[in-house]
Amino acid sequence: MKISENFILGVIISCVLLFFIFWMVEIQTKKEKEDITDKVISEKVLKRSISRGRTLFIQEDCYSCHKPDKKDGFFRVVIDRVSKEWLYKFIRDEKSLIEDKDSVVLYLRQRFNQSNGRHDKKHLTDDQLNDILSYLNSFKVN
Q1: Rounded distance between C-alpha atoms, residue 3 and residue 59, angstroms
Q2: Is residue 83 a contact partner of residue 129, using CB atoms and an 8 Å limit?
Q3: Which of 62, 52, 70 is nearest to 87 (CA)?
């Protein structure tokens, strides 16, 4: 039996095609492994943010009125129900929200006897406010 060149070429092409088919199936079904490096870096970044937020919380004299570690409920009611943008505005310029008769501010005044116009932290950057929120969220009960 004589093997022709066409037969050999056909066998080679078939093997190459089978290789590509198995390779494509493996790519499609391969489960992505969680990159542990990203998780470790994220945890370190979060811990630093919480630490900076705690420092800012104390430096800005927030702790004189707010006690997130005492589980008074104020932070969960506010932080979980308002947008980050509203919270930034509240911390930076509460008086303007009071003047605008913002419904959330009115609710806080009624329920917690809060919103006394003492939040005037215009000097805080978004990053600093994010750090403070990370600190406050570290008290979140799961």
Answers
A1: 87
A2: no
A3: 62
Whole-angstrom distance, CA of residue 107 vs CA of residue 109: 5
State how far the Cα of 81 lies from the Cα of 41, in Å rounded to an integer. 29
Rounded average pLDDT per 10-residue block, the chain, 142 residues: 83 90 80 61 88 92 79 68 88 87 83 68 92 85 50
Q: Are residues 111 and 93 part of one domain?
A: yes
Please indicate, yes or no, whether residues 15 and 63 belong to a single structural domain of this protein: no
8 A C-beta contact, residue 54 and residue 131: no
57 and 3 fall within a common domain:
no
Q: Structural domain tally of the chain?
A: 2
pTM (2 d.p.): 0.65
Give the chain's end-to-end CA distance (angstroms, integer): 76
Give the type of residue at 104: V
